[in-house]
Protein 1
Amino acid sequence: MNNISPVVESKACSGCGMCVGACPVGAIKLREHSIPAVDETCTECGICVELCPRTEMPYTAIEETVSRDHHADQHDELLGYFTRIVLARVFNDEIRSRSYWGGATTAFLTYLLEQGYIDSALLTDKVHNCYYCAHPKTRIAKTSADILACAFTKPTINPLLSQLPVAGKSVAIVGTACHIEAVRKAQHLIKHGTTARDRCRELVGNISFLIGINCFFANNYNGVERQLARLGLKEAGIKRFFYATGIPSVELFDGTIKSIPEGNRDFSSLNPGCLLCYPSYTARLSDVTFGKTMSEEWGWNDVICRNARVDALLKHMEHKKHIETRVPEDGGSELLQSLLEAEVFKVDAAGYAAYVETGRFRPDETATAMLNRPGGAIRGSNRLRLIQAVRKYSFYEPAVAARKRKGFFVPELK
């Protein structure tokens, strides 16, 4: 492999954008809908191949090194290494009202900037000037107002890392697992790389904080629009697009909540490369992961802290009344364990085997019901474990197996 074309052409690309930022001659550019393409100026230097997390990902070695360096002394097979898991709520009313699910990510970023821990952050802004927009564009935030402008989630393929390197002495990045993994691999290659070693130092040598966001899948560029069309809606007509117990839903400006019919069974709206995402719903390689899974009460964010330094900063934020935290109410440990032992999640939920044969997904109707995150007995951090298990066994592993059977390119996870 001389460049990343086989990754893209086989629909294994996550759309993280790292290859675009990394190419020293600018031969990789984003096509329409945020997919990279290699042009005729490529020198076949091999930097993009070595850097791409979908060619080869030394996940275990990186995770063990990061956890050791960050003094993350607790470990869970599904959630990875961490220092503590809590729920957090922001006191600042403006941040809370303008955020997707409470604003803990925005508050943490603002704190880092105002306290001088970072001088900029690579974030995701919106393309269209409407209240809610699912179409992402990158933004280098240098002020608190910049950070607040990027507060709301955009659940769409996002080549965020195409903007690397970011100028500054200390930079934060907020991204999903694919972005975090790409940056961690680049940091790993500064010490262990060959062709890409020097370029990696230029790209990520000043990255001080990697902030992860829970992510099951990302939609393709027009995926949210396609789902809104099922309700006869457009972006400009909604206040919020979100996932309620796994079902795509919208909030209208009058407060009405509507579920999108069959939305969690329409895999054609997703970025196909997401089905090959290494099973890391909770962005296991981050310094801290934020989300909205452990509590159905609006305003409380999941926080999985994976770095002792970050843990200390969060505790200082608590002391200064920027945030409050509480321990999640876990439940259903025995039930979850019994489900794992019975291997009930080992099914091709998306119908990926049909996709590699016909180009169309054929979802398993029973299995896709697992996308509806249950309340009831399985609660708190066990709900995170449940979703991670579904992500791994019902989507990632069947996709890899189907591609191997057909002789397609398969990302190498080590």
Protein 2
Amino acid sequence: MAKTGSFKLSHFSAYDLLPRNSLQDSEDYPVWPKRKNRLQHLWGDGFSCAEYKIKPSHLQRIHRAAVSGKLEKLDTILITENCINDKDKKNRTALHLACATGQYQVVELLVLNNCQLNLLDSECRTPLIKAIQLKQVSCATFLLEKGADPNVMDYYGRTALHYAVYNEDTAMIERLLSHGTDIERSSKEEPPPLLLAVSQGKLKMVEFLLKKNANINALDSLKRSALTLAVRLEKRDIVVLLLQHNIDVFSLDVYGKTAENYAAAAENEIILKLISEYKEEKKSKALSINSNPVSSQEQLAS
């Protein structure tokens, strides 16, 4: 369990600092962790402290062989024991542990011996999520090629894509999308990856996801748009990018406020001017089209 003394405000995104409604278990939000893990879930952000704490007392023979990379011993265990999908005392399979420690040959051996690819650890994470979270590229790529499900959500309502976005790993994002990852996957607690990128202030990720056709007008559970989040976080460069991609500036959140309202409340004159100029430009174009529909259609056709 995470110590409260290690809590750092800098670990949190805009989402962690805002109140949420009470969450209930449902198909689109994972069940709460067991009682002993709830404080870790509530105080942790799900991104920091990603490494497994591995102690010999937690492990069975198969897990020890997997972590140490002893292929001959592991092969013998797989032949003599029916334990390939067994979990250790921390709810991790040998595949989880091999992915987390970058033991590619172990991963290959386990998969070729038909281990289950999508079993969950104590935080509802698959081996694929763990590999991507810890930047074990070879392991993650192999699992995708062998059919691991990239759309499984963990306790934080995140998929493998959320962690690839957090790591700013464009190559892994490409691989995930080519293997059927839902770019809009979200939950009650975690928004689509595009909004995660905005909330983390990752301009290059926002730009990359928009190029991959992420929905620019996606909303979170409080109906906040990417623009609203960028304005509240005073991320001017992201605001400019979103306006360039014609985001809806009139979108209302659950409190009936637009991004412009939040900019005004924060007295952010620069962002207010950007939004105002964008609205004027859109209005001017609309008037031009209405006043001369024939030439406008010809212009569009050309």
Protein 3
Amino acid sequence: MISRLRHGLNTLFNIGGWMGACFVALIAVIIIIQVIGRELGYQVRGADDFTAWSVAASIFFALAYTLKKGGHIRVTLIIERLRGRSARAATLISLFVGTLVTGMLALSAIHLVADSYRFEEVAQGLLSVPLWIPQMGLLLGSLLLFLALLDSFLVALFTADGTDRQTR
């Protein structure tokens, strides 16, 4: 049961990583189209807006994947010097605080997207895109990161050495 749940979570995190990569590829496509368009005397309307939204989406979608693959820069200066219960406590506290802060970010993102949808907010750029659409990258990415941190915290809490081997 637990292994199937962890497998499902890891699948979600991998999908988030792929989504982040797709948005990076989209940025490259937009830039190529802009370069070609400029040479042909054509300006792509809204390209700057879509590039900015794609940058944000690529970052947020890839956060959980990067955490689980151990790719985040982690400040371990203190934890590496600790041993035994002290190291376990520091690891658990840092994962708990990270989970709490990310949970608040995800909750704020839910409210942001809901308000943008409810009040029919649109982008102020050249194209009137409903803001809730590009904000979904923030929402889904922060939810994925919250799940990844919660998973790491629970695994660290219930393992003997207090670490999630996936995030090392």
Protein 4
Amino acid sequence: MFDLRWGLVLCRVLNRRLRPLVLGVVAIAVLATATVAPAQDGANQGTAVDASSNLSLEPTQLTSPEGITSALQVMLLLTVISLAPAIMMMTTSFVRIVVVLGVLRQALGTNQLPPSQVITTLALFMTIVVMTPTWTAVYENAISPYTSQAEGATLERTWTEGVKPLRKFMSDQIVRTGNDDDVRLFLDYLPPPPATESGETPRYVYYGAQDGDVEVPLQALLPAFMLSELKTAFLIGFQIYLPFLILDLIVASVTTSMGMLMLPPALISLPFKILLFVLLDGWHLVVKMLLESFAFT
């Protein structure tokens, strides 16, 4: 049996033996740094001048196409990456798809099959299919002119043109599902728009505002779109869940009439539900129904 005291003694001996080696390595590193530093002073001066000149730019110059430095590009990239999950959930079809697939898994009664990673990945690729026309319009109308430094491509114009396709997609889904009340719910808690010159209250529109119209603010459209997607997802999930529920009731009534009270009905109905789902090509039908539930106009 190894004694703890011998372990402590061994650690102390190793510390004494290794201490000179560690000090020697540190000393060599310090000397190497001191030797290389003078040789790099000339190169670092030019870099320091460039960095100081970049940092001395005004905010308007930093946000112009010519003034965006590599540091700002990295910062913007990290910001977009950190906000990507929220953007994915708030402005795309991901919410509806992943909720319906989750309800389908509950209806089958397979617990963790398919795994959550598989469901999320399938929902992600379906979202890419649905959102490709919208994202293409965002790139062609906003991102491409700004990165190519086209005439009149300012940051404000890029934001305005980039939001239009997303606004149209979200508005089409809200109108198609008949969930306009969700938009009015959030508009009631926002300050009213200023009156026109004639004293009339402007009319809210989803997109393409004309004279006397005001587009629905994004702070009302985004949460209303998420509520609309949740409602639609649960309605589709109910339609998927109902046949499996009927099958569970049939199996439960049969097992009860046969006196098998101690046998869980879900244990017997699970193979039948999986067999029925596979024979009807259920995955194809569910994915097709989800894709057809979106308005591509």
